[in-house]
User: What shape does this take?
Amino acid sequence: MAICDWPEDTRPREKLLKRGASTLTDAELVAVFLRTGVVGKSAVDLGRELIERFGGLGGLCRADRQAACAAPGVGEAKFALLQAVMEMARRTLAEDMQAGDALESPHAVRDYLRLILRGKEYEVFCCVFLDAQNRVIAVEELFRGTLTQTSVYPREIIKRALAHNAAALILAHNHPSGVAEPSQADRSLTRRLADALALVDVRVLDHFIVAGASSLSFMESGQL
Assistant: This one.
């Protein structure tokens, strides 16, 4: 049965407008995005299949062009729209993060870092550079590694901090393994970076580890 033949209060778009997007299932959200299904399948059926195919809503949103366009009901136009939606989300979170004191709104920093680091198949190390009022100056990806490790060079981080005239920074990297618990190497690196940056009067305020849907703050966990 086509969605247009469903009772009005069960149709995903009408349900969203009446009750809010948070009331929709993942499959219903994808259905609103797709707008139409394919022969023999409603948009909700297709949404359910896409979620299963990509291992969840996050997997679908992070799918590359080749994989997404090969999926039934997606194609180039829908892939382009999905990329635009994801970029809008990134920029919105970046605006929220840059709006004020990073320490007074740690959730905004965490959400932004989760969005840019979650789902990567290799380790990425980045820095959020802050001014004297803890306002965001810039966010930079500085190092890339493999599935299990990244080589991080304190000298390069110091150079970028001085180039931005940063007073403080927040470190962040991901764990593709899906486990947010810091390794002994992570703890040692954090201490070395904090000590090295202190020599040029730059404070390390936090270090976030992003692993799948979870994340860990060194500051909140008492490790910094």
